[in-house]
Amino acid sequence: MHTVLSSAELYLNGKKVGHVNVRGWESSWGIGDFTPDDAFSDFAPVFGQWSMLMHEDEDARLSSAASEELSAAEQAMDSIRARLYFPDRNEWRDVRQINIDAELIEWKE
């Protein structure tokens, strides 16, 4: 993993929802630790559903119903407009894809 330590604020649909401590980059994915603000509660069910389905039974193949639920959760996540703001650089970055799994956050710009 290419390490670039910094911190950012996460905005979802224009609302500041938490803080990201950037651990670094692995290939085209940014990886960090996420600390939510109270405003994240509006988005937590979407990411929680995705996380639950991803970890449901990691050794078994997903049923077709669970696969459909996972697809719906991913579509809901993809419909959220995510941006990262790096205050030390006064820089905004648009995020194309984002995964939040408890404290772990991964994103692709």
Helix-strand blueprint:
Blueprint: E1 6-12, E2 15-26, E3 29-36, H1 44-55, H2 64-78, E4 82-86, E5 91-95, E6 97-101, E7 104-108
Antiparallel strand pairs: 1-2, 1-4, 2-3, 3-7, 4-5, 6-7
Helix pairs in contact: 1-2
Description of the molecule:
The protein is α+β, with helices and mostly antiparallel strands and 109 residues long. It has one domain (6-108). Helix content is 25%, strand content 43%. The chain contains two helices and seven strands, in the order βββααββββ. The protein has helices spanning 44-55, 64-78, and strands spanning 6-12, 15-26, 29-36, 82-86, 91-95, 97-101, 104-108. Strands 5-4-1-2-3-7-6 form a seven-stranded antiparallel sheet. β4 (82-86) and β5 (91-95) form a beta hairpin. α1 (44-55) packs antiparallel against α2 (64-78). It is globular. The mean pLDDT is 87.
Quickly describe the structure.
The chain is α+β, with helices and mostly antiparallel strands and 109 residues long. It has two helices and seven strands; from the N terminus they run βββααββββ.
The Cα radius of gyration reads: 14 Å
Uncertain runs? none
* Count of structural domains: 1
**Main beta sheet, described?**
7 strands, antiparallel
Strand line-up in the sheet with most strands: 5-4-1-2-3-7-6
Helix and strand succession? Answer: EEEHHEEEE
Estimate the helix proportion, in percent. Answer: 10-25%
Name the overall outline.
globular
Nearest-integer average pLDDT? 87
Q: What share of the residues does DSSP label as strand, in percent?
A: 35-45%
Query: For the terminal residues, how far apart are their CA atoms?
Result: 17 Å
Number of strands: 7
Structural class determined from secondary elements: alpha+beta
Tally the helices.
Answer: 2
